Amino acid sequence: MADETQKTECKDGFFRCLLNPPKCSILRMIVIGVLGGVIIWGGLNTGMEWTNRSEFCMSCHEMTIPFEELKKTVHYKNRSGTTVQCADCHVASSKTPTDYMFKSFQKLMAARDVIGHIKGTLDTPEKYEAHRLAMAERVWERMKERDSKECRNCHDFKTMDPEKQKDRSVVKHEGAAQDGKTCIDCHKGIAHKPVHHLLEKEQGKAATAPESAPPSQAQPAPATTAKAETAPAAAPALVTAAPAAAAQPAKPAPKADTAGSAAPAATTGAITALDWSKVPTRQIKVFYPGQAGLEWVMNKADHSSAADIIEKKRACAKCHEGDANEVGAAIVAGKPVGVSKTVMEPNPPAGKVGFIPVTFQTTHDDSKIYFRFEWVPPKNGDKKMDPKHEVKLTMMFDGGGTVEGSDQNGCWATCHVDLRTMKEAKDDKKTKYIVGADLASGKFMDLIQFRSGKGEKPVDGWVDSERHMDGGKSHLKAEGRKEGNKWVVTFERALAGGGKGDHAITADKVYNFGFALHEDFTNARYHYVSLGYQFGLDKPNPGVKNYIDVQKQ
Fold first, then answer.
1. Which domain holds residue 129?
2. Does 283 lie in the same domain as 188?
3. What is the three-class DSSP state of 181?
4. β-pairing verdict for 547-552 and 533-537
5. What CA–CA distances, in Å, run from 69 to 116, 199, 301, 336?
6. Residue 26, number of CB atoms within 10 A of its CB
7. Residue 553 has what pLDDT?
């Protein structure tokens, strides 16, 4: 009967139950508990959000150092107007209720920062720098343990649009997904001063770096009876050269069909006439490399993609073909590049552009292979490092996988940081070489070069432990023509080769190559270079981005 009376009273009104503790104590406790919990949770959450403001973080003056660094990055200001604050990366949860405890724990751990502030641990820029790496390592470790949830609150592989990303970003993200990597594995130092490269400084150079550089070689200049002379303002309209080995009487070259300030040079033969309109074209950006030698490219502490090149055998062009122009523009402007933020050009040449688009074509006819290069030269400057040659175009290729690493970096295997005019140069006559070169086994780069100087023969040489600028017998011809505002350079070469330093080109192999363009009377390293590419005779290979199929005409 008493229970029925209590139920009746509770039905009579909710507040009557609250005012009648003996009869409604359980319900009252539940309601008070819920209301109290809401008030306590709301107060804690309000306090947490209030202390998550960047303004609160700045109340400790030492935090202004990283905040000023953040303000200079895309995470603080960008075209879409989105921004992140300190807590978005350092206190962030996955924005789900189940992760609220982690967020609370992070706030609790922040007490360490308050203690450090009181003790003056970071109260000067010098002290902050001394502790920067240790603080960064703690953050990296925590983010890695949580699979970079702080990053993935905004970024996610599933919602990325590869069509709007750069080639290197697509390749990196695909590789990260395959390897199970998380954001912080690759994206350290994007909001603050980068220090992650310090972790790898002691690891030394990558395995491809030379164990000991070969002794300095004094490379003699190619023999010539003509004295160097200042080149005319405009290049010769047509320069044609035949093999050095061919002993044939000279004939006057045909008259140029385009304007030029000098008469055509003498020639012993013309390149076979071809219908180049039927030959596929490939647009290749040659870019300014500065002092970026092989050792820098293949060092993980300097170049973020070095691990992919070494471990996954990924070609440089797979990442950089689309943005080679940006790389060259940064280097020629003297800006820092790579994860180590290295300045590759300490003395930027005045007026030099970062890259030049080149139209590349190649074909063969069973006995000979032809290479054609077409480009619009940038405006020439006043300084002439090589006054005899307005243009030199050099192409190098291996014997079909005979030079280690050339399938990734082309002719970069010949370019080292200790060459003349490079940052570690000790001999001003030291030129290109290949570590562990062996002419007998084919571990060398075949070299052909066009020179625009009047009466110049093409160079038919090779690179092994040093650079040789003569000696080949591949029946090479080279022709250069200034057509209006563009240059056209064509090579004709016997597939069979035939001399010392000549690779035979056969249908059963894939050849790795690269080329360099000395524009505007330049010399030494002040040229433009291509990334590493490959070619094969009538051998389609659509799955390889840097491959070119040389089709028979």
1. 56-193
2. no
3. coil
4. parallel
5. 21, 21, 22, 17
6. 9
7. 87
